[in-house]
Amino acid sequence: MVKRDQLTPEASETPPLGGVNAAPFYASSTGRMVRHLISRKLAPMLAEDGPHLASAALGYGWPYLKYFPNGEVCHFSGEGHDITPWPQDKKHRSRQALVDLAQLPLLDASLDLMVVAHGLETSPRPDDMMAECWRVLKGQGRLIVIVPHRASLWAATDTTPFGMGQPYSVNQIKKLLKHHDFEVGAIEQALAAPPSRSNFYPKYAPFVERLPNLFGGVLIVEARKMIYSMRGVKVKTSSPTRSGLVHIKAT
């Protein structure tokens, strides 16, 4: 039986994510510790609503799929990403597709939970992407966004996936989510230690993570879809018609 931690795509099969190949980064000792430190904050958020949720990951969410409460997850990659064959077992199943993240092939109000990782900061249309997240989430559905923190050294270093695209400050990500009718909840920070390829990083990074800090490398932001506000529906006559819509049923 194949464990989720063993489902690492080959580096040669995954194209660069905004100039940095994400798969080999997460396969390195630094990348594995990064995944561990982010997951310490992310996993409790994912477990809040219990199992059997219709859920999806957007961007490059592979490192965090095993923390989803439901074993079956739809994974949607956007421009600059790729999909590779991942071995699957009976416990952890996932479907994946390469799509336009601003035109998701999902029915309205079809998801309970959505996680965006390495997606928002590299999106050429972040507002359209947030509007799509609102559309496909059910009433009170949860959105968790992982983005590079503008004030951190991780956002200023282009040798990791967190140095690509548009980083966000706390106020900027809150403003974006509220603009698209999300109610912002908990905001966590991770990766307090600056980026390093040193073999000692996995040893000192957990210690630094326990210290008080305001400049974590990433922001992990939890939000809920607001259904009590009135939303105007924009008609886009120039946008392509969605086809092959997917209905996700929680198991």
Keywords:
251 residues; alpha/beta; Rossmann fold; 21% strand; globular
Could you explain how this protein is built, in words?
This protein has 251 residues and is α/β, with parallel strands linked by helices. The chain is built from 5 helices and 7 strands; from the N terminus they run H-H-E-E-E-E-H-E-H-E-H-E. Strand 4 (111-117), helix 3 (126-136) and strand 5 (137-148) form a beta-alpha-beta unit. The protein is globular, with a radius of gyration of 17 Å. The two termini are 21 Å apart.
Structural class computed from helices and strand pairing: alpha/beta
Question: Which regions contain 5 or more consecutive residues with pLDDT less than 50?
Answer: 1-16, 237-241
Strand content: 15-25%
Relative helix content: 10-25%
Determine the CATH superfamily: Vaccinia Virus protein VP39
- Text of the CATH class: Alpha Beta
CATH topology: Rossmann fold
